Amino acid sequence: MSSSFVVACVGKPSAGKSSFLNAVTDAAAKVGNFPFTTIEPNQGIAYYPLECPCSKHGVSKQCKPRYGWCKNGRRFVPIRLLDVAGLVPGASEGRGLGNRFLDDLRQADVLIHVVDASGTTDDNGREAKGYDPVGDIQWLRSEIEAWVFGNIERRWPGVVRRHKATKSLAVDTLHAQLAGYGTTRDIVQRAMDTVVRLQLIEARDDISQWSTEDLRRFVGVFLDQRFPTIVALNKIDMPDADKNIAAILKRYRRQPNVVLRDGVSEENIVLTSALSECFLRRMVKQRFIEYTTGDDDFKSLDDDPALTELRELDDKARRRLDNIRDLVLFRYGSTGVQEVIVRAVEAVGFVPVYPVKSVVNFGASSTDSSSAAFQDCVLVRPGTTVREFARKMHNQLDVNFAGAETVGNLQLAEDDVIVAGKNNIIKITTTAQ
After folding, report:
1. Which of 10, 2, 5, 70 is nearest to 362 (CA)?
2. Distance between CA atoms of 317 and 106, rounded to whole angstroms?
3. CA-CA distance, 9 to 15, in Å (whole number)?
4. Which residue in 185, 187, 278, 324 has the fewest CB atoms around it within 10 Å?
5. What is the Cα Rg of the chain in Å?
């Protein structure tokens, strides 16, 4: 049982994307079972941390996730991470691996754009000195925008003719044109609502009156809704990173009642050091330190001689760990990689849902109190109803749906929207039971 949630990791060559992927997809090699039938070579598994209800309901000892794991009431839910081909300027015109890159995006719910904050690679990923990375976010977004806009613009005269003939609603016509980008009608509606709220297009409801610029503005707003973007500002411990970070944060400081600049806002920019995270994890595997991803520090035998299970560090490893501690952990509070995953999931507002057989013991059995509790956690889109969740779980649950209830034996209506902390622990009853 799984979420269909997909995060696409994008960026120019040599920005540190491979290091970032290694840093976030190796969190639990010991947990080898994944809720995905096929993992392609350019895909991996990352883990989204959240508070597990097992602690609140006193069944921590019985909590045995089928996928991922739970430790001290902290649950780690697997999500699919897609490694998209490195992008260079001109990708929308087929330069480099542009066509593959842009086709891969159709699968994604959220983008993580890895940006080299150090200025040591130019826009083509070649080694450079003093390169200004401030424009990297803008040109990547412009390539995606040019791809979508170009595809629609070529068909626009025919679209307008059909729209007039069928007298369709503007949102329905636009959704028909954008469905190929893995979108839903709700996303198109939100984009239209934003256009209306910000008064970006005068003839809002009559797309036959739209100018080329009107269409371009709508596409930009649509992309904000369809591909929320988290920027992993990487290599923060490198020389010159500080001034580049300050310039990027200033450029993307959010303004109220204004369309996002290049689809990015300051709160969705996370400072990261992927190589530091990779090194810390390697030191953990080799039993030199105690460390958990997201922590603001680690412990070695130097820090606590009582940790006799740890090995003694050599001078080279000690110097590197001291640098990571000073330049990354103490300065920024963490390596940032886990925060990127958290922001990616929360950017869409996905809701964790726990399907159970019993709303009393939360187990796989309604009669055996010792059975494994909260075995499954499924991330669903905001606005998902109880009946839609049943359908997502299995078509037979939908066909034979007889009712649903949550904690306290409270009955749920099939059109009740699932809300975290309110009704997201669900027992579904079927006529076949």
Report:
1. 70
2. 42
3. 11
4. 185
5. 24
Amino acid at 279: F
How far, in Å, CA of 288 to CA of 303, rounded?
Answer: 11
Q: What is the DSSP letter of 240?
A: T
- β-partners of residue 63 are 373
Instruction: Please tell me the distance from the alpha carbon of residue 82 to that of residue 87, in angstroms, as a whole number.
Output: 14
pLDDT attached to residue 226: 94
Q: CATH number of the domain at 142-223, please?
A: 1.10.8.470
Region 113-120: what's the mean pLDDT? 92
Q: What is the mean pLDDT of residues 329-338?
A: 97
Distance between CA atoms of residues 403 and 395, nearest Å: 15
Task: Please return the burial class of 178, using the count of CB atoms within 10 Å of its CB with bins 0-12, 13-18 and 19+.
Answer: buried
Report whether 229 contacts 270 (CB < 8 A).
Answer: no
Alpha helices (H) along 8-135 = 17-25, 53-56, 98-104
CB 404 within 8 A of CB 397: no
Report the alpha-carbon angle 396-400-401, nearest 5: 110
pLDDT digits over 388-431, tens only? 999 999 889 989 999 999 999 999 999 999 999 999 999 999 99
Domains in the chain: boundaries = 142-223, 274-332, 350-430
Sign of CA dihedral 29, 35, 39, 44: negative
Provide the pLDDT for residue 13: 77
Distance CA 285, CA 273 (A): 19
**What's the CATH number for 350-430?**
3.10.20.30
Average pLDDT value for the chain? 88
Q: Are 228 and 111 in contact (CB under 8 A)?
A: yes
Tell me, rounded to whole angstroms, the distance of Cα 233 from its chain centroid: 15
- CA separation (Å) from 33 to 29, 45, 65, 338, 390? 9, 10, 11, 21, 23
Residue range 130-136: mean pLDDT, rounded: 88
Separation between Cα atoms, residue 172 and residue 376, nearest integer Å = 36
Q: What pLDDT, on the 0 to 100 scale, is given for residue 37?
A: 44
